[in-house]
Design brief:
Protein name: DUF1998 domain-containing protein
Largest sheet: 8 strands, mixed
Strand content: 35-45%
Order of helices and strands: EHEEHEEEEEEEHHEEHHHE
Number of domains: 2
CATH class of the largest domain: Alpha Beta
Organism: Candidatus Cryosericum odellii
Number of helices: 7
GO molecular function, one term: 3'-5' DNA helicase activity
Distance between the termini: 44 Å
CATH architecture of the largest domain: 2-Layer Sandwich
Radius of gyration: 20 Å
CATH topology of the largest domain: Gyrase A, domain 2
Pfam families: MZB
Mean pLDDT: 90
Structural class: alpha+beta
GO biological process, one term: nucleotide-excision repair
Amino acid sequence: MVSTETYPHRFVSLRTLSDKRYHILNDGDRQVLEEADAYKVIEEFYPGAVFLHQGDSYLVTDNDHEQQVVHAVPTTQNYYTDAIIRSDVVVQNERGHRDYGDVGLSFGKVVVSEQTVGFIKKSFHIETEVGREYIDTPEISYETMALWITVPDAMLDRLTEGGYDIAGSLHAAEHLLIALMPIVVLCDQRDLGGISTILHRDTLKPSIFVYDGHIGGVGLTESAYGRFRDVVSLALDRVTECPCKDGCPSCVYSPKCGNNNKPLDKNGARVLLGLLLDRLDTTTGGGA
């Protein structure tokens, strides 16, 4: 079980750390292995993480955020680790909104909060899970820009009638939008993040958020907001043309997923994206 209580020392503003570099220190010989920014430390160099450096494996034993030092020791473990990340998005200011029938598309300023709550151990050789652990790390928070779409009840009813998992369909659609958006806005997939939820506290509806993975935003989702129809069309093409049965790394699986790609419903996402594209094509977006 992971505690959800909030303590001042367990919260870190990424803005205050954005200009600082951490030293990844080998405690065995006191040599600095590499440097990393705060975001990479939170996502890759958390306590318990196993990482490779120049072909050698190292185990992270501690993070000192005051001194910006990550302590690591050589290890002979035959696994690597993937973080389990809990994410949340709070809308601060909606700067644009369009209604496509009963589908809402918005753009604005948000606060993203992320916390590494555990990690999965995966074998180097066969890429299978060999264990998992849960940890307590600081939550990071930063302001950025995002677009988000709200899904109407009528579409949820269509998913339910088809026997599709609603949460898995939203989640898989989120992955597809993030994967295909870089083609439209010319960026790397790692520059974007996202969440999907059956009920969001601010929209009060099922929602998919995609946000700029940089403090303050760098214009990526703002550009995608103006070309969202293109993004949805590309995402639908990808999931429709992929020959796999239930999802794979070529369509709905994401190497960045903090939920270990669960739940995902590839076929539900295909239906959902088809319904969204139909709304975008048959209705005129009213609003700013």
